[in-house]
Amino acid sequence: MADANEKLRVEFNEWAVQGRGAEMESHHLSIAGQTIARMALKAGDRVLDLGCGAGWATRLLAEAVQGGQGMAAGLDISEEMIARARAGARDVENVLFAIAAADEIPWMDEYFESALSIESFYYYPDQEAVLRELYRVLIPGGSLFILINLYKENPYSLGWAKQLKVAVHVRSETEYAEMLRVRGFTGVRSTHIADLTATPEQYSGAWFANAEELREFKRIGALLLEARKPEAGMRG
């Protein structure tokens, strides 16, 4: 586990230096914005952004919960990503960032009303351990939202596993839903969130064969997993 987390730290430090943290915002803003709208956050909520990278989504969450004790916390294993996240949020009062692995969340039990993970969950070596930590830090009745593009039902994402330098999990919607239930979450449901951004007529990147594949990938959409920690005394 420690070795696998260290590989993630090294890889995402490299991504940060290459400027890919900011790139993630342009790639994921559409699906992230739709997801944050579904979270129904309120002023005063405390929300965790797990695998926050350069912190762009954390800032959106901070805006959604500002007022009272509202706070957005971003967590990432990469100190280079967190350095960029902190620099980008200098003027945001209700945001903070921490460096840690996702299976060792450095907050007390029952602290957050909501937690969000955007395009990071399939990287975590021990996903069950991460879910245990998320369960621990959510308040009773707290909500969890996991958004991922790499899953079995979107075939246009499956080639990524061979291109990435670190190991990733490739699971189905059913497998993820069962994993959440086993870890004690209730109200588990899955939805596809289409990427609403325009697709160029020509595509020359490394992740898709052509523009039509990219268009279909966006149409199928990211997998959004929603779940809730049971209310006190009602573990399901």
Tell me what the structure shows.
The chain is α/β, with parallel strands linked by helices and 236 residues long. It has one domain: Vaccinia Virus protein VP39 (Rossmann fold, 3-Layer(aba) Sandwich). Helices cover 39% and strands 21% of the residues. Strands 3-2-1-4-5-7-6 form a 7-stranded mixed sheet, with helices on both faces. α1 packs across α4 and α2 (20-39) packs parallel to α3. The protein is globular, with a radius of gyration of 17 Å. It starts with a helix and ends in an 8-residue tail after the last strand.
| C-alpha geometry | globular
> Percent range for helical residues?
25-40%
Tell me the strand percentage band: 15-25%
How many H/I helical runs? 8
The assigned CATH architecture is 3-Layer(aba) Sandwich
Alpha carbon gyration radius: 17 Å
Largest sheet: 7 strands, mixed
Structural class: alpha/beta
Structure described in brief:
This protein is an alpha/beta fold and 236 residues long. It contains 8 helices and 7 strands.
Keywords for this entry:
236 residues, alpha/beta
SSE topology:
Elements: H1 2-17, H2 20-39, E1 46-50, H3 56-65, E2 71-76, H4 79-88, E3 95-99, E4 112-118, H5 127-137, E5 138-148, H6 160-163, H7 173-182, E6 186-193, H8 211-220, E7 222-228
Parallel strand pairs: 1-2, 1-4, 2-3, 4-5
Antiparallel strand pairs: 5-7, 6-7
